[in-house]
Amino acid sequence: METANDAGTRRIGPDPGELARMIKGWGRELGFQHIGITDTDLTEAEAHLLDWLGRGWHGEMAWMGAHGTRRSRPDELVPGTLRVISARLDYLPAAAPARSVLEDPVAAFVSRYALGRDYHRVLRARLQKLAERIEARVGGFRYRVFTDSAPVLEKAIAEKAGLGWIGKHTNLINREAGSWFFLGEIYTDLPLPIDEPAANHCGTCRACLDVCPTRAIVAPYRLDARRCISYLTIELRGSIPEELRPLIGNRIFGCDDCQLVCPWNRFGRITGESDFAPRHGLDARRLVDLFAWTEDEFLKRTEGSAIRRTGYEGWLRNIAVALGNARATEDVVAALRSRSHHPSELVREHVQWALARLGQGA
User: Fold this and answer.
1) Does the annotation flag 258 for ligand binding?
2) Which residues bind [4Fe-4S] cluster 2 (predicted)?
3) 28 partner at 20 to 30 Å CA-CA among 82, 240, 294, 317?
């Protein structure tokens, strides 16, 4: 949403420093764990983005380069933007332990962020409430709310706003909370004071590089998304490269390995947000059970969930790969054979691969 009044009609409000303190207080009242404020200069992040795109590491995510410099220049995306309010909302749910699920070849692993309600809706609504609180205090002002829904360099913005630093795995890390959180932004024309950027505390640690199943983290702070399991199971619409399939294990939507080994995540706290609690037992469901879902069941049980992004065919594709990485038990083989004549060529291809990998090919 965007509102605007002529500067001459704006109500006289508190001085910028006092207003910034108020905004941070309102953010805490609305459930955010951290609010920071920064300017619009993302020159360093822009250079990193252009290099990443130039290497083709974005794969099929053409939208990453489709908006030119508007992604890295907030005032081009929303003219008149002077400041960005960056917000953090923790999401780590009380769920079956991730490591135990990953070690069970017949269980389905879903990234912790996707177990509950779609974070886009939760964050957007809360950021809108924060903007409305500001408006009630200062009168009309120009703003726009973002939650991973437009060309925004949210991690670079959050780093500049003091919410954390971008780690070697390219996720944002906070010293007090680790990396189990979502980010959202409010672009605004309010001349607020800015916060100090966060310092990097990765040191010599390389745990995330060493644990990545597909070696997608090709160097510190360098991610080749084309090899990342999150990309392969969510963003990629076609066939998963055969050489990467065995490395995916039982991960059917996303991958949390780099976060699970990060030493800073020992400070991560279970969220109190009921919206992020696991739905439909997806924190530890059996692969064969999920593979049996009809499209109607998939749509019903993923309503309001980030899992919808992969689509039903992608869902079956991902589970077929995971079943191929399991053991050739009677129920696993029967589940795969039940989809061997699926109308989708994409699904059939991955089912056939899985059966062959289990020594059950035709």
Assistant:
1) yes
2) 212, 228, 255, 258
3) 82
Given the DSSP bridges, would you call strands 181-188 and 83-90 parallel, antiparallel or unpaired?
antiparallel
Measure Cα distances from 334 to 123, 257, 289 in Å. 41, 30, 12
Q: What confidence category does residue 362 fall into, taking pLDDT thresholds of 50, 70 and 90? A: low
- The answer to whether 242 touches 289, Cβ cutoff 8 Å, is no
Dig out the tokens for 66 from the structure. Answer: 């489709």
Q: Where are the domains of the chain?
A: 1-94+115-222+262-274
3-state SS, residue 45: helix
C-alpha span between 189 and 296 (Å, rounded): 45
The active-site residue, picked from 41, 148, 189, 289, is 148
88 assigned to a ligand binding site: no
**71 vs 53: CA distance, rounded Å:** 13
DSSP 107: B
228 marked among binding-site residues = yes
CA angle 62, 67, 70 (to 5 degrees): 140
Q: What is the largest CA-CA distance in the chain?
A: 77
71 is in an annotated binding site: yes
pLDDT digits (tens, 9 = 90+) for 223-255: 999 999 999 999 999 999 999 999 999 999 999
Alpha helices in 98-191, H assignment, sequence order: 98-102, 119-138, 154-160
Query: Of 309, 303, 307, 2, whose CA–CA distance to 146 is shortest?
Result: 2
* pLDDT digits 0-9 by tens, 158-203: 999 999 999 999 999 999 999 999 999 999 999 999 999 999 999 9
Is 172 assigned to a binding site? Answer: yes
Cα end-to-end span (Å), the chain: 56
Question: Per the annotation, does 223 bind a ligand?
Answer: no
Cβ contacts of 126 within 8 Å, gap of 6 or more:
30, 31, 32, 87, 89, 184
Residue 111 contacts by C-beta under 8 Å, 6 or more apart in sequence? 230, 251, 253, 254, 255, 256
Strand partners, 344: none
Asked if 83 contacts 37 with a C-beta cutoff of 8 angstroms, the reply is yes
What are 210's two structure tokens? 């060493």
